[in-house]
What does this fold into?
Amino acid sequence: MKLKGFTLLELLVGLVLSGIVVAASFTAYQVMAGRYGSYQQMNTAIRDAAWLHGLLGKDMERAALVTGNSETIRLQFPGGRNLAYTFAGDYILRRDSLVTDTFRVKHAEVKLLYENQPVNSELLPVEELVFTAGIGSEPELFRFRKTYPADVRMTFARKQEEE
It folds into this structure.
């Protein structure tokens, strides 16, 4: 009686072929996991930058007065509420009295301008905030403007004349 089955050579060929399939599958998994990780990092960076852009734009628009230096800007709102943005290293902090938001946005060259001149004193208002932020491999320019009413501009013009 002859039993039907596989020979040792057939089993070894099957084992080698299955090993090749497993190795190819593992390599494909590693490549896809790496791409997903980089996609997730890029997505997080874009989300943080978009969130920062939206909040900072609204805060600048709604603030009664914006002052500060290249490391921290302070926003004063009607009703006494204050808010501060701190530019530090690889992140930007948004602080009010209760909450601190962290934006993981690498930034450089923070410029504060009033009437197209650099703001050198924290006593002067900030009319324009400009900085570059690295999102992915390309730097992006962020520009925010604050429009002050004429009476506020006149008050600051008088203060500058007195100094």
Observations:
- The longest strand covers residues 106-114.
- The first helix runs from residue 8 to 62.
- The CA atoms of residues 43 and 136 lie 9 Å apart.
